[in-house]
Amino acid sequence: MSYSYAYLLKYIIIGDSGVGKSCLLLQLTDKQFQTVHEPTIDVESDVFATKMITADSKPIKLEIWDTPGKERFISITRAYCDVAAGALLVYDITRRETFDHLAAWLEDVRRFANEDMTIMLVGNKCDLPHKRAVSYAEGEKFAKEHGLIFVEASAKTAQNVEEVMSDYWCISVQLSPLSRRFSHAV
Ligand SMILES: Nc1nc2c(ncn2[C@@H]2O[C@H](COP(=O)(O)OP(=O)(O)O)[C@@H](O)[C@H]2O)c(=O)[nH]1
Ligand SMILES: [Mg+2]
Questions:
Q1: Please, how many CA atoms are within 13 Å of residue 91, restricted to the half-sphere of its CB?
Q2: What pTM value is reported for the model?
Q3: Whose CA is nearest to atom 14 of ligand 1?
Q4: Atom of ligand 1 nearest to the CA of 128
Q5: Helices (H), 45-93
Q6: How many angstroms separate the alpha carbon of residue 60 from the centre of ligand 1?
Q7: What pLDDT does residue 145 have?
Q8: Which of 38, 47, 107, 162 could connect to 66 by a Cys-Cys bridge, CB 3.0–4.6 Å?
Q9: Is 33 inside a domain boundary?
């Protein structure tokens, strides 16, 4: 009898509209970037992609849920926060307001999430240094103050997407008691 994966872990991607959540998801799971794609506007539709990784020498299936960012707190976020092993909280380094909203996002997540959730802060669009409105140091400081893992990445060039994220998945899987509680052997 063969097992296709040892665990199934759910993640959510959150952050303001337009920061690149859907593009990051596509880059993470399909290694692609599309300039034109459907905006994630339909709150009721479930949008997720899956990715296989190996952590602790075990095959792990990740289910990564995209969310529309128009309203800070929407049904998908609420429904998935309590079972999610982790969240990618994304802002756009070229738009200051998306960074300023991070505290409010965190408050929402922490209200509904389980305590063991690992959150990674992603400063996206680092391929646009000439348009930068938030410094690396500011992102790093915010992450440190709130106990988040931090990375600047680009969904466009794929910079830091695969390498850093895979480190994050591994840390998150190891830290998560959800890997036991929500394991699905198939
Ligand atoms: N230059 C650049 N543009 C990006 C990047 N990620 C996303 N975009 C663009 O930003 C816009 C919003 O991206 P999208 O993924 O729809 O944002 P979402 O609303 O957070 O899901 C789109 O026009 C993307 O092409 C990136 O890393 N670099
Ligand atoms: Mg989207």
A1: 29
A2: 0.86
A3: 20
A4: 1
A5: 75-81
A6: 28
A7: 97
A8: 47
A9: yes
Q: Which two tokens stand for residue 91?
A: 């802002």
User: What parts of the chain have a pLDDT lower than 70?
Assistant: 1-3, 34-46, 69-82, 176-186
Residue 186 lies in a domain: no
With respect to residue 68, please indicate whether it lies within any of the assigned structural domains.
yes
Domain count within the chain: 1
Of 77, 6, 13, which is closest to residue 49 (Cα–Cα)?
13
Pairing of strands 149-152, 48-55: unpaired
- CA distance linking residue 26 with residue 90, whole number of Å: 14
Q: Which ligand sits nearest to residue 25's alpha carbon?
A: 1
Is 1 a member of any domain?
Answer: no
Instruction: Give the model confidence (pLDDT) of 61-114 as tens digits.
Output: 888 888 776 555 555 566 666 678 888 999 999 999 999 999 998 988 888 777
Give distance in angstroms: CA of 52 to centre of ligand 2. 22
CB 50 within 8 A of CB 126: no
Q: Whose CA is nearest to atom 2 of ligand 1?
A: 125
Q: How many CB atoms lie within 10 A of CB 11?
A: 25
What is the domain extent for residue 138?
Answer: 7-181
Radius of gyration of the chain (CA): 16
